[in-house]
TrEMBL record:
One of its GO terms (molecular function) is oxidoreductase activity. The keyword Oxidoreductase applies. SUPFAM superfamilies: Heme oxygenase-like. Keywords: Oxidoreductase. It comes from Actinokineospora globicatena. It holds the Pfam family Haem_oxygenas_2. This is Iron-containing redox enzyme. SMART domains: Haem_oxygenase_2. It comes from the Bacteria.
Amino acid sequence: MTLVHDTADRAARIAAVVADIDTSAAIDNDFYRLWMGGPLPYPAVAVFAREYLARTRFTAVMVALSVLNTTDLAARVECVKNLYSEYGNGNAEKAHLVLLENFLADLLSRLGGREVSTGELTLEEPLPSTTAFSAGQRELFSSTDQRVVQGALLAQEHLAFAMLTRLYEGVRNYKPLWPREDDFHEACEYFYVHIGEAEKEHKREAVVSAAAVSRTEADFAVVLRAYDAFLTLTADYWRGVHQAVAAAG
């Protein structure tokens, strides 16, 4: 058994893994290019909203599973911090899923010229690629091997920051739908919470917790395999979303 030296060394090694995540197909893909390239018609935005909500509604559940399925105390503590943030630091109105639902309903209502609720987005089944993502995500986070869980969490949290910055850049294409600039920025709280502090902290916490369970070379290899598996799931998810959004537009 080859030991990976002290905690700082392990954290540095984990940080090196995620340093080039924005070059992966999970981030460098056709969907983001389409989304940021200009405004899309209502049907295309509705497809995006449906698929993104279907994917994101389970994020906090996955973080909760990371708490349950991680036995290392230091790693578990970092996961708990992440979970508390997902639930609005104790304020249900600021839970990240609530902020997302509010934004999507507002955007679609303005774009469609009628009141739209997020309940409408759940009337249609998500794409098979979205369902496959959710199933694969749950499998990783439900693993009894904490190294698998932490590898998946590492990928999820580092993808989230890159994802949300790109989604926000695309959202700015719809800024004219809000008559006052302040109203637009208030509506975008979901993005600002993540881009400002939450995801930066989640990224740091995920590095610390992944490092905590990477005590040997074998541990590190398992973490890395799970990390790569989550990247692949995410790339496939966005490929499916891109095809559906492009077809609707």
